[in-house]
Amino acid sequence: MNGSQDSAARDLEYIRRMLERTQQRIDPHAFHFVHWGAIVLVWYPLMNYFEESGQLAWRLPVSIVAIALGTLLSFAREIRLSRAPRLAGENTYIGRQVGIIVAGCIGAGVVLSGFAPATGFVDGPEVPVIWGLVYSALAFMTGVVYTREFLVSGVVIFAGTLLAMAIQQYNGFILGPFMGLGMIIPGLVAERRVTKMQEAPVAGDTGTV
Q1: How far does Cα 167 stand from its chain's mean position?
Q2: Cα–Cα distance between 92 and 155 in angstroms, integer?
Q3: DSSP code of 89?
């Protein structure tokens, strides 16, 4: 009887540890955070510079290039991963949650970027502040379902957004580094984690955990 109980206990412990390992195998596709962060890091200060120097004609073409580049990179990477996921035995539940958070926040940001200036709620040059709030919420909610570095990032981006509200004339110069690095740093940490998991065996593959 004791032997059966010991065997059952070992089996339960094996299952528990296997589930823990599986739950850790999450790919949040953080490359989106990295390349959009890099784009914003350059794009927003440039827009502020064009505004301050009176070179307003450059704002639209630079914005089109920035948005097109980010969209192309995101689309191309997602197409590639739809054919060959990076992690065997991946827990896709958290990844899907992160995807929903990103889609919801970005969708709201796009709507507000058009609606707020159209209604006179904010002027065009102040739209980046809206995106600061969007990125802050996006990072914070990602941190709630994924890892702590995104929580910290959300708080930091929110602080930068408040600073940009206080110094509106230089909002692009402020938001670029806060939003850009606030996305790049946790995104790189997440990508590094995925790379390490690619090199690690999936629980149960070798009969050991």
Answers
A1: 26
A2: 26
A3: T
